[in-house]
């Protein structure tokens, strides 16, 4: 059944001629009909042929596939977004598996690194800390007045690439493109934001083309006051808006989430979204190994907020299966630059404490694997190549089907490649990486690597929140999302080692997740709309489709 669905909003004002062609939300390019051209003063401004959306999509597809440089493809797509928003989404949604690696990881990482050098047209809101006291005024310049989903970064930890300052804007833009393309959140309700508090990246500070504030990062009380002003302004201007925090350094990510999670509708994607996708992958892996979650032990490479976020959600799932929560947390060990996090270490932060092991220090990751005998290792270090041959071989000796998740992004930061992990484990590893890898041939078998990326979570979460006007985002919603992803993996997929729904089907998979999460939001009494009889129909009727306004 086709529920009525939202398309691009039609013009409140009646634009004509070039004003219409230059309005990306209303522009149809060569798809304007003869009647529209006559009525809207477009005759003569367009070549005479009228093309269907399908042909327009095919034209862009041909153009993009003829380019061999991914950054060029990224630029073609972002120019399209600035020119014809409907067509941009029609292109992305026509082949998400092909276009995600361009508008998202890994290519978006390069776009952020080169931001000042490739800048063309503005998108989103830039809030420099020099505008403290006027944040609401700046935010009010955004043309859309019903912002319901906002992704914000301060650029300090962009993927695994580090501090990219204002160049981090590429991330909120890319994440929100996927909220629309993968789960149908209407673009007119989305807002990308950068909090520009300076950068400590000297190469950027020395680059004449750098576009952010040319100063070191502001920290401490002044920083928090700026964040506070931002949150208050968002609350006043857009009372139904959810704030997604993205790619903040640990030093701010953890306190910001703690400060606001019980006050407003908000979540941190790197902590909670990544946790959801990791747990989903583990739940599906257990369907392959026929083991229980309470029999698992995980060792994390990296002990930042992504690691503790995943470790905590796994612990909650173990506790849900009957295990004591403290015992569950001890089954998730963290390893960082200074070794295993053990009780005798003096440099443990509060957010890491639940996972600290009561044993003697271990200084190498290989030794930690040998001693703790994990069933799975998860890489969230941002440092490439740390899952060495010995580490993978040891995991394969310890486990018939070792779980190996090098999650760091982009591809250049992955703890191991798919090919390495499959080769060193004789094809037995259950592998998922944050950024995509191509299929691997091993002894005549074709192995298809999984992409364990929070893209399976945050667009669906955004849609559930949008449709229900949720008041809060709870851990329980991420547990539900993880289960809703894992339950969609077919037996046939599992037999081929696949632990996530195929990316080709990410739209329908996300709508399923959104429906399950929305149902949970109603159950928890967190919705601000009346509970419908059919939550699926509510989701479907909230979904944006890339169809031109009539
Ligand atoms: O953006 C991605 O691909 C996943 C993510 O949140 C990160 O690595 O920070
Ligand atoms: Mg991120």
TrEMBL record:
(S)-malate binds at residues 157, 409, 453. The active site is at residues 104, 175. GO terms for molecular function: malate dehydrogenase (decarboxylating) (NADP+) activity; metal ion binding; NAD binding. InterPro entries: Aminoacid_DH-like_N_sf, Malic_enzyme_CS, Malic_N_dom, Malic_N_dom_sf, Malic_NAD-bd, Malic_OxRdtase, NAD(P)-bd_dom_sf. Its cofactor is Mg(2+); Mn(2+). Residues 81-261 form the Malic enzyme N-terminal domain. Divalent metal cations. Prefers magnesium or manganese. The keyword Protein transport does not apply. CDD domains: NAD_bind_1_malic_enz (cd05312). PROSITE patterns: MALIC_ENZYMES. Keywords: Metal-binding, Oxidoreductase. Residues 271-522 form the Malic enzyme NAD-binding domain. One of its GO terms (biological process) is malate metabolic process. The keyword Metal-binding applies. Pfam families: malic (PF00390), Malic_M (PF03949). A divalent metal cation binds at residues 246-247, 270. It comes from the Bacteria. This is NAD-dependent malic enzyme.
């Amino acid at each position: 059944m086709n529920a009525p669905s939202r398309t691009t909003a039609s013009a409140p004002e009646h634009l004509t001629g070039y004003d219409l062609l230059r309005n990306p939300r209303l522009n149809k390019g060569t798809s304007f009909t003869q009647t529209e051209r006559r009525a809207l003063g477009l005759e003569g401004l367009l070549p005479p042929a009228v093309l269907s959306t399908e042909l327009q999509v095919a034209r862009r597809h041909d153009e993009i596939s003829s380019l061999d440089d991914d950054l060029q493809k990224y630029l073609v797509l972002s120019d399209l977004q600035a020119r014809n928003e409907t067509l941009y989404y029609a292109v992305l949604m026509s082949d998400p598996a092909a276009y995600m690696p361009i508008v998202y990881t890994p290519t978006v990482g390069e776009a952020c690194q080169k931001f000042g050098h490739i800048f063309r047209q503005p998108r989103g809101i830039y809030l420099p800390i020099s505008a403290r006291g006027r944040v609401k005024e700046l935010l009010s310049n955004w043309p859309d007045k019903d912002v319901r989903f906002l992704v914000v970064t301060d650029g300090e930890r962009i993927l695994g690439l580090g501090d990219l300052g204002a160049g981090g804007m590429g991330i909120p833009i890319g994440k929100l493109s996927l909220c629309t393309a993968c789960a149908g959140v209407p673009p007119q309700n989305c807002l990308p934001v950068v909090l520009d508090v300076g950068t400590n990246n000297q190469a950027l500070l020395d680059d004449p083309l750098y576009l952010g504030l040319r100063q070191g990062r502001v920290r401490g009380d002044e920083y928090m006051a700026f964040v506070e002003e931002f949150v208050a302004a968002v609350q006043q201007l857009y009372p139904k808006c959810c704030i997604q925090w993205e790619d903040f350094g640990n030093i701010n990510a953890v306190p910001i989430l703690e400060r606001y999670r019980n006050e407003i509708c908000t979540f941190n994607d790197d902590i909670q979204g990544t946790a959801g996708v990791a747990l989903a992958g583990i739940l599906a892996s257990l369907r392959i190994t026929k083991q229980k979650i309470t029999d698992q032990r995980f060792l994390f490479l990296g002990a930042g907020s992504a690691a503790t976020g995943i470790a905590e959600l796994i612990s909650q799932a173990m506790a849900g299966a009957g295990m004591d929560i403290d015992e569950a947390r001890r089954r998730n060990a963290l390893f960082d630059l200074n070794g295993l996090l053990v009780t005798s270490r003096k440099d443990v932060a509060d957010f890491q404490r639940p996972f600290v092991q009561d044993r003697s220090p271990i200084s190498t990751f290989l030794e930690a694997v040998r001693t703790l005998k994990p069933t799975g290792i998860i890489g969230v270090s941002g440092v490439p190549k740390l899952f060495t041959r010995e580490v993978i071989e040891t995991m394969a000796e310890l486990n018939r089907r070792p779980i190996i998740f090098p999650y760091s992004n982009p591809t250049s930061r992955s703890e191991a490649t798919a090919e390495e992990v499959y080769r060193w484990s004789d094809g037995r590893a259950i592998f998922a990486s944050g950024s995509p890898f191509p299929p691997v041939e091993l002894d005549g078998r074709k192995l298809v690597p999984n992409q364990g990326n929070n893209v399976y979570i945050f667009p669906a979460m955004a849609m559930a929140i949008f449709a229900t006007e949720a008041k809060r985002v709870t851990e329980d919603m991420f547990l539900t999302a993880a289960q809703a992803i894992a339950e969609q993996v077919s037996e046939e997929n599992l037999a081929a080692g696949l632990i996530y729904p195929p990316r080709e089907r990410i739209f329908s998979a996300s709508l399923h997740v959104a429906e399950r999460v929305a149902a949970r939001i109603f159950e928890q009494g967190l919705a601000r709309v009346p509970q419908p009889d059919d939550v699926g129909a509510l989701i479907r009727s909230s979904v944006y489709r890339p169809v031109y306004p009539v």
